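User: I'm new to structure prediction. If I give you an amino acid sequence, what do you actually give back? Let's try with this one:
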Amino acid sequence: MSALLEVGDLRKAYAGVHALDGVSFAVEAGSITGLIGPNGSGKSTAIDCISGFQKRDGGRVVLDGLDISGRPAHHIARAGLMRTFQTVRIYERLSLRDNLAIAAQQFDAATWIDEFLRTRRYRTAVEQAEARARELVELIGLQRYYEVETGILSYGQKKLVALAAALMPHPKIVLLDEPVAGVNPSRIREIEVALATLNRAGETFLIVEHNVEFITNLCHRVIVLDQGRKLAEGPAREIHGDPRVLEAYLGMTPEMAAAEMRGAA
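Assistant: Good question. You get back a string of structure tokens that encode the predicted 3D arrangement of the chain. For your 265 residues, that looks like this:
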């Protein structure tokens, strides 16, 4: 696999406090990569800067060979980088089908004139959006809710709708900001299965999340931030037992963490 997203020396400060202090990492095409760290480590700031929702102070972001550093969020989205948010953003009075149709409409080539005249370009866009929506709904396991107002869904299911909406324009990568935060534990497994299924279908994800177990079960590689810097990076299972990571999360010294792991063994 090759690097699809490359982040180099990313920097962001607020009133002199370095939220990001030279963070560098890469996300391989076809992978699920986790971005974790304790509160205040810079995780959400990183994906905000990468996706164009905050201005970075320095550094470079390259998507599939294209330098997207400093571009506005809508340009970055059209370049192929989509994202979700901690708070669900969907149209709760509309059906799942209509939510996904709206998500597709923002990126198709049809204009309002095409829609008014029902041109071939408009009809093709509608057919393609319908096919993509049905494909995604099946992959996330919400087929029976396709024509149902999304307001009746559980919070976890609404997060899956937001994920499907982000995937409608066939992005190169999707950044997920805490996809299981506030989700009932019984629904977390459903989101995990849906993401694994989508990944097997070819989707690439970068996931920011506090739930370390979720990240360990799902991700191929994990990047750990602490105080705005990259603390560790590697396969999920190795990171889970890294003494530096345990120190950052649990306040243990490396010696204490190592002793704890030896005792558990």
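You can read the tokens as a compact description of the fold. Here is one thing that stands out. The chain is about 40% helix and 25% strand.
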